[in-house]
Every structure is written in structure tokens, then in C-alpha cells.
Amino acid sequence: MNICFFNDEKASSFQPLTLTRPMDDLRVGIYSIRDKWRRVLGATFICRLLPVYLEGVFSSGEMNEKEDVLWINPRLLPSEKMVAKIEGLNAGQKIDYKGQCLAARIDGEKSILLFKKRTFTGSDLEPVDISEAIILENLWDLLTLNAFEIEKDIPLTGLKTESEKDGDIQNNIYNPENTFLGKGVSIEPGAIVIAKDGPVVIMDGATIEAGSIVKGPVVVGEDATIKMAARVYGGTTIGPVCKVGGEISNCIFHSYSNKGHDGFVGNSIFGQWVNLGADTNTSNLKNNYSSVRIFDWETKKEIETGAQFLGTIMGDHSKTAINTMLNTGTICGVSSNIFMSGFPPKYIPSFSWVGAEEYGEYQFDKAVEAMHAMMKRRTVDLSDAYKNMMQHISTSR
Fold first, then answer.
1. Among 192, 321, 336, 380, which one is most buried in terms of CB atoms within 10 A?
2. pLDDT tens for residues 30-77?
3. Are the beta carbons of 3 and 69 closer than 8 angstroms?
4. From edge to edge, which strands make up the β-sheet containing 173-174?
5. CA torsion through residues 341, 345, 347, 353, sign
6. Are β-strands 31-32 and 207-208 bridged in parallel, bridged antiparallel, or unpaired?
7. How far apart are CA 231 and CA 197, in angstroms?
8. What is the secondary structure of 195-249 as a DSSP string?
């Protein structure tokens, strides 16, 4: 089966997270959007329409022109009903929901032409209307849906519950019938896993250090580490190779990001290679309990979210110093360095240098040096294509 991801005009609403990744690479629940669709549809060929500046960092993929192609809007999340609807499409049909094209089936020959032109249009396709869909409309929807998506993704892991496995159950795992452990998981003495209010999924190679408490629904990704005495609350996804400590509630860490020390982060999303200094705290609730306003990345104007709880959204490679305080509804771009003693601005552009007495641009060569040093610690190369992507973001900040 062929899958090709396309974006619509609402995809830009997911910046700054999508400045450094295609929309289908966003993580919600256990997996990225791409991996969810790959697993539920059993796709062999997967491709995407990529902005030119992301090529080389991400693959455009391959398309088999001898078969029909399922075109999928990555703002759409899979469900049993939606998968059945998509698989039942005939060539030349599309799924419409409230005027939005969510998926389509197009023959291979026409799909190849669209793929080469880097464009998708469904205007000439026969619409098939639906009454419900799990769709991402706004950045903060990733947080709203995360607990639900963790539970929904569990069958895709192929993991058994601890109560279904042979052998003794560790005495620090509560509700083993709702706890899922991958291979090589280490749960150290004094750590507690509580899956009463939702599942706890700990993927291959992850470590829960001594004295930590993990209370579901939570997923801990491959080779991730929950540091000693951490408290991780429901609705949280800790992505692969992340290291986190302190107090965390309803957050998404994509991968390779660190919050290694005490401090609270709540209702927040962090990209890759983020580092939060010791005692960094995010405010996620306004003092007057009103809904949170956040800056739209493109218009630079504040918009109403309708959410009472919303902390920080931070792009890849951004970093905070010790004791940093991030205001409710803070949005921070890519590769910004924040070391202000008071509350920094709620809108922080990419490649910003936010110091105690200065607010300016982070010099690109210095930023790349920091990227290289951090990535080298995890034996990941900073490729020329990656550097070119960052140069594009810096230039157009």
C-alpha cells in the first residue's frame, strides 16, 4: 500500500514545532503521526510532500506508481472507523470533514505527477462526507488528546500487560493489568508505577530510576530515563532518549531532550534537543483562572485558546538557564537561549538570545557549535543538510 502525506493551509498553525520537521513527524500518544498510520494501514511505501529546506534531513520517501495512493492529511489521527472509511475509498474519492480534505485515494499515475510537483489538490475528487473525525486543529490539541492517544496506541505496540506475562510481577508495579513493559526495561528499587487511572507504557531500554513515581496514562519512550525521585503525572509522553526529572504533568517531549533536574513543567510541548536548566518552571495556569492566550507564530498576534491549562511550547534546540521562569502560554522558537532572571517574553522568536540585560539574535555560528556539542554527546552527527535547515530558519526568523 502507498501512503503520501500532504499539508493544508492549517499546517502552519503547528509552528514552531513544524519548523524543523514535517507535520507527520509530530509525536502524540506513543508514536509519531506517521508511525500511527504506517502501523494501522500496513503501508509498504510511505512518502510526503516536503518543503525544500527540509530535504536531506527528512526523506520524501518512495511511491509505487503501479498502485493507488492513499493521500492523508497528517492533522488527521487514525481510528477504527476512519481506517475503514479510508480503506473503502475508490480511486478518485476523498474524505471531507467540515470543508477540510482529510484523505483521498488517487491512482498511481496521477499521484506521481502531484508528488513531482510537490502539491496536492482534491478539488476534482468526489467527496465522501463523514460526521466525526479525530483531527488536530491547534497546537494545544496535541496535549488535549495525548492521554487518549496513549491508550489508543497500545495495540500498535504489540506489548502484553505485566499480568499476562509469565513470572513474578515486581512489587513496585501497581495495576499490572494496565502496565506494559518492553524489552530491557529497568525499574530501580523504590520506583513506583501506578496504572490505576490510565496505562503506563515503558518502551524498550527505558530506565525508571530509584524513588521515581510514574502515574498513568504515561508513555516512556525507547532508551529514555526518568531520573531519581521524579514525579510524572498523566497525559505525559517522554520521547525516545530523553532524560527527565522533577515534576512533569501532561507534557510531550519529542526525543533527545533533557529536563534532568527539579522544577515543574505542565501542559507543555518540547521538540528535540531541548535542554531545560535546573529549577526551570513553567506556569500553566493564570492567577485569575481565565483561559490562556498564546501568540500565533505567523501573525505574531495573541489568540484565545479556550484552554485553562497551557504552559510552554518550545521548538528544537532551545535551552533555558537555571531558575528560568516561563510564563503561562509561552511560545519559543528554534535554537533560542534563555537566561533571563525574570519572566522572559511570552513570544520568543527562533535564534533569540534572551539575557538579563540584552535581547537579541543568537549568532548562527555559536548556535551551531552548541548543536554539534549536544548531538555529539548522543553520538548523532550534525549533517550539512541539518545545518542548512537551521540556516534557513535563522535567516527567515
1. 336
2. 999 999 999 999 988 899 999 999 999 999 998 888 899 999 999 999
3. yes
4. 173-174, 192-194, 213-215, 231-232, 247-249, 264-266
5. negative
6. unpaired
7. 15
8. -SSS-EEE-TT-EE-TT-EEESSEEE-TT-EE-TT-EE-SSEEE-TT-EE-SEEE
Three cell numbers, residue 367? 548556535
Strand bridging mode 231-232 / 213-215: parallel
Distance CA 335, CA 315 (A): 7
Burial of 221 (0-12, 13-18, 19+ CB in 10 A): buried
Beta bridge partners of 353: 337, 360
User: What confidence score (pLDDT) does residue 99 get?
Assistant: 87
Instruction: Extract the C-alpha cell encoding 27.
Output: 509525536
Cell of 342: 525574570
Picking from 232, 224, 198, 219, the residue whose alpha carbon sits closest to that of residue 31 is: 219
- If you average pLDDT over residues 78-96, what whole number do you get? 95
CA dist 335 and 389 (Å) reads: 12
Q: Which three cell numbers stand for residue 223?
A: 532508551
List helix spans (H) across 259-383: 364-377
Length of the chain: 397
Total H helices, total E strands in the chain? 6, 39
Listing from the earlier edge strand, what are the strands of the sheet with 337-338? 186-187, 207-208, 225-226, 243-244, 258-259, 275-276, 319-320, 337-338, 352-354, 359-361
**Cα 30 from Cα 27, distance rounded (Å):** 7
- pTM, 2 dp: 0.96
What is the torsional sign of CA 124, 94, 4, 91?
negative
Provide the grid cell at 34.
506517521
